[in-house]
Amino acid sequence: MQLDESIYTVIKRHCAEGDRFADERQYRSAVGAYNKAWELIPAPKNDWEASTWILAAIGDACFLGGHPASSKEAFTYALTCPGGLGNPFIHLRLGQLSHDAGNLDAAADELMRAYMGAGEDIFAKEDVKYLLFLRTRAVL
Questions:
Q1: Cβ contacts of 112 within 8 Å, gap of 6 or more
Q2: Alpha helical stretches, state H, the chain
Q3: What is the pTM of this model?
Protein backbone atom coordinates (compact mmCIF):
# COMPACT_ATOMS: atom_id res chain seq x y z
CA MET A 1 0.00 0.00 0.00
CA GLN A 2 1.15 3.50 -0.77
CA LEU A 3 0.37 6.63 1.16
CA ASP A 4 -1.38 9.53 -0.47
CA GLU A 5 1.34 11.65 -2.13
CA SER A 6 0.42 14.84 -0.22
CA ILE A 7 0.62 13.04 3.13
CA TYR A 8 3.85 11.32 2.11
CA THR A 9 5.40 14.69 1.21
CA VAL A 10 4.60 16.11 4.66
CA ILE A 11 5.89 12.94 6.34
CA LYS A 12 9.19 13.25 4.47
CA ARG A 13 9.45 16.91 5.46
CA HIS A 14 8.99 16.08 9.17
CA CYS A 15 11.51 13.24 8.91
CA ALA A 16 14.06 15.47 7.18
CA GLU A 17 13.65 17.95 10.03
CA GLY A 18 14.14 15.10 12.51
CA ASP A 19 17.26 13.99 10.66
CA ARG A 20 18.70 17.51 10.88
CA PHE A 21 18.05 17.60 14.63
CA ALA A 22 19.58 14.14 15.04
CA ASP A 23 22.68 15.19 13.07
CA GLU A 24 23.03 18.06 15.55
CA ARG A 25 22.56 15.62 18.46
CA GLN A 26 19.34 17.33 19.46
CA TYR A 27 17.59 14.02 20.00
CA ARG A 28 14.55 15.29 21.90
CA SER A 29 13.75 17.68 19.04
CA ALA A 30 14.41 14.90 16.53
CA VAL A 31 11.89 12.65 18.25
CA GLY A 32 9.38 15.50 18.21
CA ALA A 33 9.75 15.91 14.45
CA TYR A 34 9.57 12.16 13.83
CA ASN A 35 6.46 11.95 16.02
CA LYS A 36 4.78 14.55 13.80
CA ALA A 37 5.42 12.23 10.86
CA TRP A 38 4.19 9.23 12.84
CA GLU A 39 0.90 10.98 13.63
CA LEU A 40 0.18 11.26 9.89
CA ILE A 41 0.34 7.51 9.28
CA PRO A 42 -3.19 6.12 8.90
CA ALA A 43 -4.45 3.20 10.98
CA PRO A 44 -3.53 0.46 11.12
CA LYS A 45 -0.12 2.03 11.38
CA ASN A 46 1.85 -1.18 11.01
CA ASP A 47 0.50 -1.73 7.47
CA TRP A 48 2.71 0.99 5.99
CA GLU A 49 6.35 0.79 4.95
CA ALA A 50 6.82 4.37 6.08
CA SER A 51 6.01 3.23 9.61
CA THR A 52 9.10 1.01 9.61
CA TRP A 53 11.55 3.80 8.89
CA ILE A 54 9.76 6.39 11.03
CA LEU A 55 9.81 4.04 14.02
CA ALA A 56 13.45 3.19 13.34
CA ALA A 57 14.26 6.91 13.33
CA ILE A 58 12.34 7.43 16.59
CA GLY A 59 14.02 4.42 18.15
CA ASP A 60 17.46 5.55 17.05
CA ALA A 61 17.00 9.08 18.39
CA CYS A 62 15.77 7.65 21.69
CA PHE A 63 18.71 5.23 21.82
CA LEU A 64 21.26 7.95 21.12
CA GLY A 65 19.46 10.34 23.46
CA GLY A 66 19.63 7.92 26.40
CA HIS A 67 16.01 6.77 26.53
CA PRO A 68 16.27 2.99 26.24
CA ALA A 69 12.67 2.14 27.17
CA SER A 70 11.24 4.42 24.49
CA SER A 71 13.82 3.16 22.02
CA LYS A 72 12.93 -0.47 22.67
CA GLU A 73 9.22 0.30 22.32
CA ALA A 74 9.73 1.95 18.92
CA PHE A 75 12.01 -0.78 17.57
CA THR A 76 9.79 -3.58 18.85
CA TYR A 77 6.78 -2.06 17.12
CA ALA A 78 8.86 -1.58 13.96
CA LEU A 79 9.30 -5.37 13.83
CA THR A 80 5.55 -5.65 13.12
CA CYS A 81 5.75 -3.28 10.14
CA PRO A 82 6.64 -4.18 6.53
CA GLY A 83 10.33 -5.04 6.28
CA GLY A 84 10.87 -4.65 10.02
CA LEU A 85 11.56 -8.27 10.86
CA GLY A 86 14.95 -9.03 9.39
CA ASN A 87 16.01 -5.38 9.13
CA PRO A 88 19.65 -5.46 10.30
CA PHE A 89 19.58 -1.98 11.82
CA ILE A 90 16.46 -2.69 13.88
CA HIS A 91 17.99 -5.94 15.14
CA LEU A 92 21.28 -4.17 15.89
CA ARG A 93 19.61 -1.59 18.11
CA LEU A 94 17.40 -4.19 19.82
CA GLY A 95 20.54 -6.22 20.49
CA GLN A 96 22.35 -3.24 21.92
CA LEU A 97 19.38 -2.38 24.11
CA SER A 98 19.15 -5.96 25.36
CA HIS A 99 22.90 -6.05 26.02
CA ASP A 100 22.82 -2.81 27.96
CA ALA A 101 19.86 -4.08 30.02
CA GLY A 102 21.75 -7.28 30.87
CA ASN A 103 19.51 -9.54 28.76
CA LEU A 104 22.46 -11.28 27.18
CA ASP A 105 20.65 -14.17 25.48
CA ALA A 106 18.28 -11.74 23.74
CA ALA A 107 21.25 -9.52 22.92
CA ALA A 108 23.12 -12.39 21.29
CA ASP A 109 20.06 -13.34 19.23
CA GLU A 110 19.38 -9.80 18.00
CA LEU A 111 23.03 -8.95 17.34
CA MET A 112 23.45 -12.17 15.37
CA ARG A 113 20.40 -11.25 13.27
CA ALA A 114 22.05 -7.89 12.54
CA TYR A 115 25.34 -9.58 11.70
CA MET A 116 23.67 -12.14 9.44
CA GLY A 117 21.77 -9.42 7.59
CA ALA A 118 24.57 -6.91 7.11
CA GLY A 119 27.83 -8.48 8.16
CA GLU A 120 30.45 -6.96 10.42
CA ASP A 121 30.12 -3.58 8.68
CA ILE A 122 26.95 -2.79 10.64
CA PHE A 123 29.08 -2.64 13.78
CA ALA A 124 31.68 -0.27 12.29
CA LYS A 125 30.34 2.94 13.87
CA GLU A 126 29.11 1.31 17.07
CA ASP A 127 30.79 0.78 20.42
CA VAL A 128 33.13 -2.19 19.93
CA LYS A 129 31.71 -3.87 23.06
CA TYR A 130 28.74 -5.18 21.09
CA LEU A 131 30.79 -6.96 18.45
CA LEU A 132 33.21 -8.26 21.09
CA PHE A 133 30.25 -9.61 23.05
CA LEU A 134 28.83 -11.30 19.94
CA ARG A 135 32.18 -12.96 19.36
CA THR A 136 31.87 -14.59 22.80
CA ARG A 137 28.61 -16.19 21.65
CA ALA A 138 29.39 -17.13 18.06
CA VAL A 139 32.27 -17.81 15.72
CA LEU A 140 32.20 -14.94 13.23
A1: 95, 134, 137, 138
A2: 5-23, 27-39, 49-64, 68-78, 88-100, 104-118, 128-137
A3: 0.96
* C-alpha span between 56 and 95 (Å, rounded): 14
- pLDDT value of residue 140: 85
| Nearest by Cα to 77 from 41, 36, 101 | 41
Is residue 30 within 8 A of residue 61, CB to CB? The reply is: yes
Cα distance between residue 128 and residue 16, in whole Å: 29
pLDDT tens-digit map of 13-33: 999 999 999 999 999 999 999
What lies within 8 Å, CB to CB, of 37 at 6+ separation is: 10, 11, 12, 14, 15, 18, 50, 54
Task: Give the start-to-end residue ranges of the domains of the chain.
Answer: 1-67, 86-140
Determine contact, residues 74/62, Cβ cutoff 8 Å. yes
pLDDT surpasses 80 at 10 = yes
